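ok here's RNA polymerase, sigma-24 subunit, ECF subfamily:
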Amino acid sequence: MPTDEELLDEIKRGSQAAMEVLVKKHYKYIFAYVYRKLGDYHLAYDMTQEVFIKMMKSIHRYKQEGDFKHWLLKIAVNHCRDYFRSRTYKQKGEESELVAPVRDEKGNVWDLLSKKLDSEKVKAAMEHLPDYQKEAIILKFYQDLKIREIASITNSKEATVKSRLKQGLNKLKIMLKGGNADARQQRR
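and the structure:
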């Protein structure tokens, strides 16, 4: 399979086939991020298509500095952020269901995430996190990015990413054990 750089060179020369190969090569990765971020399969499908349309429109601006996959993921991150700011999302106003308690004898949320135990409950708990914490956790644990890569993609400092991860994981741990993160935070 040709590298991203080779495909980009062909695309710049007008190759439609190279564009199709590039999209197929990265589609699952981008869809996985968008789906985890939104939690709605059909909406994620549509939004992923929109991410690739944006990629096609702005591919001439890609300077081939750094990893193409990260540049594409940055487009997906920004597109999801735009969606959450949109009137469509605000009008939707969906209420999410309460999270049922999960017992983790070791009390280790890292194990819950890495082994994807009870993934539906983790997914439901993730919906209760602030968007910036959810985004950091998805990029770290589901997209396997390093702190520095997350900072670059989200236009944040590394210390900010670390803080968002720590706070988000702490909230998840509390929710998955059956508590209310806000109530426990107030007691401290």
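+1. Residues 94-107, 183-188 have pLDDT under 50 and may be disordered.
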